[in-house]
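pasting for ref
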Amino acid sequence: MLRRYLSLFSSRVFLFLIVFLALEYFPLTGGFLMLVRGSLLAGFLVHLFFASLFVEALMGRIPRVFILVPIFVYGGYYAAYFREAWQVEQLSQKLRATKPWQNLRF
């Protein structure tokens, strides 16, 4: 059963991501990867992993419950994003009400 899951595209992407992150940890390879924008590739691999997990769960290659993982991850991200935007707007309104002449100075 483990062999079946290791042959999936999402598990290969996940293993490649783990190896890539381990290579970023060491000074020699990490310095080189930093120069060639390795963090962009790491971010791309994370998104590719979640997308492939979603597609494979839709196709039925893995249990359907795994479709919730990318939904919760991206849902949590956007919930935090909109909450931060709301807090920034609240703070901006508060600053505009207390010191309207300093908005243009910044």
